[in-house]
């Protein structure tokens, strides 16, 4: 075993003074919104070969702050109460041999340390001992206790609410969750094992308090298991149970992740996807509304090619270590939309952002004063990226939105061919130095989930869309297939269906779950949209290798397709249609398409049995140049049973100028909005004005009443209707203030008075 020869080193005051981040640099390190308070190099820490993991501890008695830094030779304890002057209190040597991998967590004033060194087990160290030393001499400590029921272990995690530790990636329990009772820290004891999903690289275990009510109050572990995110109920340590095992496209090495504080989302990193796939640094964002079936809602692209490592979440920020790109801090206030925004970084490896395992290993962001500690590995003898970095996070100034607009915009009445102009005023009333980003959009939905370049937007039952299955079995016409990969001619729609600027009176229904308006294709292997494999325009409710009943049926074909048409709607239903059997045994799908004369359409999913993880859902245009994709080979993350996707055109009668921009503190802007009835028929139109900002989102419902220009006597608001609103307006806006209105003077006696009100009331009640 190799020991550090200077465990009794008298630490000299060879530390960097505080260096503020100015013009993107702090003492040669690239930065933004983070100052370098101090650093200790590997040479100042006894010349170990490398640094690795890091954790922190706040002494509840003295309120002193400590960095617990993993080294290949052991663990260093550094007091950072004064972040500009870190003091090395001492070292705990490794229990066995040196190792690149070491991991540290704390509970009840004790540190728990594991290593991949053979025979290391788990060291227990009483941190209260650190109070007795002033840092003038670095002390060599001895472990307080040792747990030896496993040898090597990659990581240790602790649920401080329950007093249980979980060793993962160890030489016991198939590398899964080795559970240890540490409620008496100096006397840890074996509690249980979870090995069902094999090797676990890292995990986080909590008393769950998220949206899935069946698991609230139970102890749940969220594990990164090399190629999956595995969720386990460990409430009963003697009988842990698997809740779900969740893979994702492009998995190379699911490394580590962390929950948002409300337990609604889980963010994880893949350590090797950048290395093997040549992609930018990616963070995977999971919606945990249902633990049995978490939804991957987005993969955030960081814009750099380096490898990501440990991440942690505190309040609305995620603190992610990137090897060669340093510590990156992201605002996750809009994580419900799958969004992250980088607000700060400190790059301890300024040479490059390559896909190498150099630079930063991990970080600890949980001190109360925005002090962040970062561990540097050091690489190839280059010491400038190794050791301890003490950083100050300068949290961005907080913007705040002030919104003003004319309330009459919410309901506008126009004659055909007219328009009305409004102003939406936005003001940043936030802190000095803050920046408000805004975008004003028109939508058919309160919160659409995406749009294409042709003005089509979509939403689903995950938001405001209501599932409404239309049963047409007894009034339908069967669709017959000559084989399981093509359509059999065209069928009439019953009206002219508008799609991508054209109208279609007929369509073809392909056996593989898509509707064509420009021709047919035998493409059974679904693709991402847009694609030249299928002639556009086309709708794809469930494009996959389906095998309905056809003229060339094999033993696995199953399910019927039928349609119903009228002047009001056109419905196509796939009823218990089988997937081609290979790899999809016992997979049957019941879904339908509903098309309306307005151009709106819906995809309804009644019953999806078996595996429905491989499908393309969306639409594409005539030239295969524009598309709206809801899912591609990840249908489980988008659709479910009793589920609807709705697609509508963005309202053309809402026109917006200066729709996006930035506002500094106390800066205001007016966004012109025009409501226009040009080209519209008489009737009532509904839409929404969406104001998206980096602090809050606002939705303004809009109603447009279009009439023929002939106003009805008594119709004060000119909406084409006589109702109580007209009575209220007549009384409040005219009679009580003694003003005349010719439309309100129903009896045409030259006066607007109670007689007109009586006539209006009698007219309304019949």
Shape annotation: globular
Uncertain runs: 1-16
CATH architecture of the largest domain: 7 Propeller
Number of structural domains: 5
- Helix/strand class: mainly beta
The radius of gyration is 32 Å
CATH superfamily of the largest domain: YVTN repeat-like/Quinoprotein amine dehydrogenase
The level 1 CATH classification of the largest domain is Mainly Beta
N/C terminus separation: 99 Å
Number of helices: 3
The largest sheet, given as strand count, sense and whether it forms a barrel, is:
8 strands, antiparallel
Q: What's the β-strand tally?
A: 54
The amount of beta strand, in percent, is 35-45%
What helical percentage do the residues reach?
Answer: under 10%
Q: Briefly note the CATH topology name of the largest domain.
A: Methylamine Dehydrogenase, Chain H
Task: State mean pLDDT (0 to 100 scale).
Answer: 92
Q: What can you see in these coordinates?
A:
By secondary structure, the chain is mainly beta. Helix 2 runs antiparallel to helix 3 (754-764). The protein starts with 24 loop residues before the first strand and ends with a helix.
């Amino acid at each position: 075993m190799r020991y550090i020869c200077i465990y009794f080193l008298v630490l000299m005051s060879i530390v960097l003074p505080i260096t503020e981040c100015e013009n993107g640099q702090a003492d040669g390190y690239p930065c933004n919104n983070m100052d370098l308070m101090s650093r200790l190099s590997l040479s100042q820490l006894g010349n170990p070969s490398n640094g690795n993991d890091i954790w922190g501890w706040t002494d509840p008695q003295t309120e002193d702050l400590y960095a617990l830094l993993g080294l290949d030779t052991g663990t260093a304890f550094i007091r950072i109460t004064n972040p500009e002057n870190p003091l090395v209190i001492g070292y705990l040597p490794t229990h066995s041999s040196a190792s690149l991998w070491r991991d540290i967590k704390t509970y009840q004033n004790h540190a728990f340390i594991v290593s991949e060194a053979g025979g290391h087990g788990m060291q227990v160290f009483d941190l209260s001992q650190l109070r007795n030393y002033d840092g003038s001499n670095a002390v060599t400590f001895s472990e307080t206790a040792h747990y030896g029921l496993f040898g090597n272990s990659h990581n240790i995690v602790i649920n401080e609410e329950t007093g249980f530790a979980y060793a993962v990636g160890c030489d016991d329990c198939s590398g899964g969750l080795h559970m240890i009772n540490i409620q008496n820290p100096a006397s840890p004891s074996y509690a249980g094992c979870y090995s069902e999903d094999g090797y676990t690289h890292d995990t986080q275990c909590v008393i769950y308090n998220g949206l899935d009510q069946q698991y609230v109050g139970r102890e749940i572990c969220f594990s990164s298991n090399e190629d999956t995110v595995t969720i386990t109920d460990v409430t009963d340590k003697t009988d842990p149970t698997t809740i779900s095992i969740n893979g994702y496209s492009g998995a190379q090495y699911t490394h580590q992740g962390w929950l948002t504080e409300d337990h609604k989302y889980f963010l994880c990193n893949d350590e090797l996807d950048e290395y093997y796939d040549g992609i930018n640094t990616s963070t995977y964002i999971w919606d945990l509304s249902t633990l049995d079936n978490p939804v991957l809602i987005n993969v955030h692209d960081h814009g750099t090619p380096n490898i990501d490592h440990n991440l942690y979440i505190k309040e609305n920020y995620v603190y992610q270590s990137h090897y060669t790109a340093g510590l990156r801090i992201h605002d996750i206030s809009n994580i419900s939309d799958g969004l992250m925004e980088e607000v700060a970084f400190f790059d301890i490896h300024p040479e490059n952002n390559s896909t190498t395992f150099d630079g930063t290993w991990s970080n600890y962001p949980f001190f109360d004063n925005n002090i962040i500690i970062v561990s540097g590995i050091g690489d190839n003898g280059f010491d400038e990226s190794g050791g301890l970095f003490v950083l100050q996070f300068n949290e961005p100034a907080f913007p705040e939105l002030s919104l003003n607009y004319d309330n009459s915009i919410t309901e506008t009445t126009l004659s055909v061919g007219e328009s009305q102009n409004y102003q939406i005023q936005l003001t940043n009333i936030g802190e000095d130095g803050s920046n408000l980003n805004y975008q004003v959009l028109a939508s058919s939905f309160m919160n659409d989930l995406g749009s294409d370049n042709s003005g089509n937007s979509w939403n689903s039952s995950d938001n405001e869309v209501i599932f409404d299955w239309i049963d047409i079995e007894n009034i339908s016409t069967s669709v017959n297939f000559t084989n399981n990969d093509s359509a059999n001619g065209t069928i009439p729609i019953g009206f002219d269906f508008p799609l991508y600027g054209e109208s279609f009176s007929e369509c073809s229904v392909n056996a593989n779950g898509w509707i064509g308006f420009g021709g047919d294709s035998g493409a059974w292997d679904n693709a991402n949209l847009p694609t030249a494999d299928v002639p556009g325009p086309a709708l794809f409710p469930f494009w996959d290798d389906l095998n309905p009943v056809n003229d060339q049926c094999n033993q696995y074909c199953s399910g019927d397709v039928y349609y119903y048409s009228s002047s009001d709607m056109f419905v196509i239903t796939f009823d218990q249609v089988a997937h081609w059997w290979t790899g999809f045994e016992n997979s049957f799908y019941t879904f339908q398409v509903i098309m309306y004369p307005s151009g709106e359409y819906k995809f309804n999913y009644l019953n999806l049995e078996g595996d429905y993880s491989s499908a393309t859902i969306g639409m594409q245009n005539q030239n295969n140049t524009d598309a709206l994709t809801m899912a591609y080979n990840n249908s489980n993350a988008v659709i479910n049973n009793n589920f609807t996707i709705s697609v509508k055109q963005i309202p053309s009668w809402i026109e917006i100028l200066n729709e996006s921009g930035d506002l500094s503190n106390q800066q205001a802007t007016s966004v012109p909005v025009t409501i226009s009835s040009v080209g519209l028929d008489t009737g009532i139109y509904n839409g929404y004005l969406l104001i998206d900002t980096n602090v809050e989102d606002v939705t303004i419902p809009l109603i447009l009443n279009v009439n023929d220009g002939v106003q009805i006597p008594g119709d004060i608001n000119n909406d084409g209707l006589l109702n109580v609103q007209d009575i209220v307006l007549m009384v409040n806006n005219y009679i009580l203030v003694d003003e005349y209105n010719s439309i309100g003077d129903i009896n045409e006696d030259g006066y607007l008075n109670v007689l007109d009100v009586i006539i209006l009331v009698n007219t309304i009640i019949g």
